[in-house]
Amino acid sequence: MNRRLAVTVRILVLLVMFASLAGISRAAWAEGQGPYYKVIASGLNNPRGMSFGPDGALYVAEAGKGGTDCVDLPPGEEDPEGGSQLCFGFTGAITRISHGHQTRIFKNLPSYADSPEGGAATGPNGVAFTLKGLRVVIGLGANPEEAAAVIPAKYKYFGYLGQMVWGKKIQPLVDIAGYEAMYNPEPTAVDSNPYAVINDGSMGIVADAGGNSLLRVDKYGNIETLAIFSPVVMTMPTDLPFPLPPEMPVEVVPNSVVKGPDGAYYVGSLGGFPFLKGASKVYRVVPGQEPTVYADGFTSTNGIAFDRMGNLYVLEMATNGLLAAEMGGDFTGALIRVNKDGTRDVVMSEGLVAPTGLTVGRDGYIYVANFGVMPGQGQILKIRPW
């Protein structure tokens, strides 16, 4: 299974889990080097994407913290001597935040992590509302066929788009990972990790970070590939702690999607191994056309959103790159505004630690998932960007 990012993040979590908690107060607005902000939810397990519901509440996908049902993995390319494991559990959830109260309205969703500690878990990644209710994408991060041989049968629905039903856990709708296994739109590798979902009329738009594709799901459950994101050949720095070719293809890893003011889809990208500084881009996608780069030069991006003025907000998980973060223990994130005239402002950096989700409310405030790879320590920040 493809666990490069999860392993990188998990190692780093051990370095910063307790060292970086100071300086954020839940009780009132705080001011750092940037805007005022406050914590409106805490104690979350690996929070990811979020969406406002028709009731005005904020709904947050929690990837969970895996569990204690651990499975040993066979030796493979990334772990030739073996010894790795995946730990499963029903710890994924969806939390509702409204008027100062947070409630896990859906629990017992599948989750796994690389250790029983539950750092950087995989589970519910993103949520979106349709006329029929709340939908969720559950990640996978693997070749679906290889994953099927490892994941115990009771932890099904990894790689699915599902509908949350009151009184039930989840109603599976579409097997996103199965589509990747059958068609593999971007042919570099067979890998699926549904990471973000939005609703557009009667259709769902899903960013498959593992498959490097943007997909459209119609109301009948049919899947169509809207865009593929081919690897980008990049020059490798000479100061990396391991040898790499002077140039090598780097995967795009699309992991966020919004519909822009112009009606096009905008897709943010993490940028694949070795997670170089400045390698992340935001793409503009018009169905039937090749994706074009709208803005670039970001690092480890994992959230984008437009405000009512047409400015684009971009969330960086680690401003110096994930490898640099692992080596130096610096998981400082950044919230960047790309103004309509192309200029950029760093709205907030101090106080952001491994942020993993972003949305803009109707009130103009920015909502960010903070401590997003740390079980039990995840927060939602409400940020005033002016």
Task: Provide a compact summary of the structure.
The protein contains four helices and 28 strands.
Describe the structure.
The chain has 386 residues and is mostly beta strands. It contains four helices and 28 strands. 9% of the residues lie in helices and 43% in strands. The radius of gyration is 19 Å and the shape is globular. It has helices spanning 4-16, 144-148, 176-183, 322-328, and strands at residues 30-31, 36-44, 47-52, 58-62, 69-72, 85-98, 101-113, 124-130, 133-138, 160-163, 171-175, 194-200, 203-208, 213-217, 223-228, 232-235, 247-250, 254-259, 265-269, 280-285, 292-298, 301-306, 312-316, 334-338, 344-348, 357-360, 366-370, 378-383. The model is unreliable at 1-27 (pLDDT under 50). The strands form seven sheets. It has a five-stranded antiparallel sheet, with no helix packed on it. Strands 3, 4, 5, 6 and 7 form a five-stranded antiparallel sheet that branches. A four-stranded antiparallel sheet has the order 8-9-10-11.
Largest sheet, described in full?
5 strands, antiparallel
Fraction of residues in H or I helices: under 10%
Give the integer mean of the pLDDT values.
Answer: 90
The count of β-strands is 28
SS-derived structural category = mainly beta
Query: How would you classify the quaternary structure?
Result: single chain
Distance between the termini: 43 Å
| Unreliable residue stretches | 1-27
State which percent range the strand residues make up.
35-45%
- Put simply, the count of helices is 4
Radius of gyration: 19 Å
Label the overall shape. globular
Going across the major beta sheet, what is the strand order? 1-2-28-27-26
